[in-house]
Specification:
Layout: E1 19-24, E2 30-36, E3 43-47, H1 58-64, E4 69-73, H2 89-103, E5 110-115, H3 117-125, H4 129-134, E6 135-141, H5 148-151, H6 161-171, H7 182-192, H8 199-210, H9 214-225, H10 230-234, E7 240-245, H11 253-262, E8 266-272, H12 279-282, H13 284-310
Parallel strand pairs: 3-4, 3-5, 5-6, 6-7, 7-8
Antiparallel strand pairs: 1-2, 2-4
Helix pairs in contact: 1-13, 2-3, 7-8
Length: about 300
């Protein structure tokens, strides 16, 4: 079972779930799922990124669960979801469809928000029947659809083959990250967070990322290095908002701008000044507000229409 290490108190401490359940994906992978908030409230599904877990969304869950039903789950191999032999975009899409089927009523709509690999999950699933049945609106946060290694700024040198090769070595390392030390925090902050990220934010991210097993981190790094989901972006026909930090080295703003240009129904791009790749942790209020706004604009309207039709 994957180690769970996260902060125990403060805004980044994961709240206690109303319900825990297991969703079974197409290939038998068992996914840890949690729901938070009132059962009859508008639904929001949050999908975390590479090396993270449900704990990553703690700040959003805590705020949104006051008046939304919030669904979070651990991607395969992450958090409390066991690793499985299959890694790839199709597996991510399968897993999301399984979670939606296990947590939402037939035809029920939700805002789907994905960070980093979580956003890629939404792009991979965009053409799936389960996605189209349940997606009212989407938030793509700190993510991209292709050229992830080529555009990465983690290695501080000119773009080209040498930088891409070095980036693959860094991100695809098989070495265990070990304990969260002062040096480890500095490295993590440089690679994934903006210069203004507080020690509390860095500590929260470090504990979550360091809990991801090295073999899982390595396996998914290979998937991300060759990922091409440009076709999935064009299939995201629901209203979709994009959020990125201006200091994001992992998926810099060039990705957000490309997504906005390709999306059939882009409802805004938010570039958060000085924020790095970990926007939901570094700028929790801004990310939560964007999710809340999408739910108010698209999920509540659909609920009202259903009530009027019933009347």
């Amino acid at each position: 079972m994957t180690r769970l290490t996260h902060v125990k108190q403060g805004p980044y401490a994961p709240p206690v779930a109303v319900r825990e359940l297991t969703a079974v994906s197409a290939d038998g992978t068992r996914l840890h799922v949690e729901t938070h908030g009132p059962q009859d409230a508008p639904a929001v599904v949050l999908v975390h990124g590479w090396t993270c877990s449900t704990a990553y969304w703690a700040a959003q869950v805590r705020e949104l669960a006051a008046d939304h039903r919030v669904v979070v789950y651990d991607q395969r191999g992450h958090g409390r979801s066991p690793a499985f032999a299959t890694c790839g975009a199709d597996a991510l899409a399968d897993d999301l469809e399984a979670v939606l089927a296990a947590t939402l009523a037939p035809g029920e709509k939700a805002v789907l928000a994905g960070h980093s690999m979580g956003g890629m999950t939404l792009m991979a699933a965009a053409g799936r029947p389960g996605f189209r049945e349940h997606a009212a609106a989407v938030l793509l946060c700190s993510t991209g659809s292709s050229r992830l290694v080529a555009e990465s700024l983690v290695v501080p040198m000119r773009p080209g083959r040498v930088r891409s090769w070095l980036t693959r070595q860094v991100l695809g390392s098989r070495a265990p990250l070990g304990p969260v030390t002062p040096v480890a925090r500095r490295i993590l902050k440089y690679a994934t967070m903006g210069p203004g990220a507080s020690p509390v934010m860095v500590e929260a991210c470090a504990r979550i990322v360091h809990a991801c097993p090295a073999r899982v981190r390595h396996a998914w790094s290979h998937v991300l290095a060759s990922l091409d989901l440009d076709h999935g972006v064009r299939e995201l026909t629901v209203p979709t908002a994009v959020v990125v930090g201006t200091a994001d080295r992992m998926t810099p703003p060039v990705h957000a701008r490309a997504l906005a240009a390709a999306l059939p129904d882009c409802v805004g791009v938010s570039e958060l000044t000085g924020v790095g790749h970990m926007a939901p942790v570094e700028a929790p209020e801004a990310v939560t507000a964007r999710i809340r706004g999408l739910a108010a604009a698209y999920v509540r309207v659909e609920r009202d229409e259903l009530e009027e039709a019933g009347a």
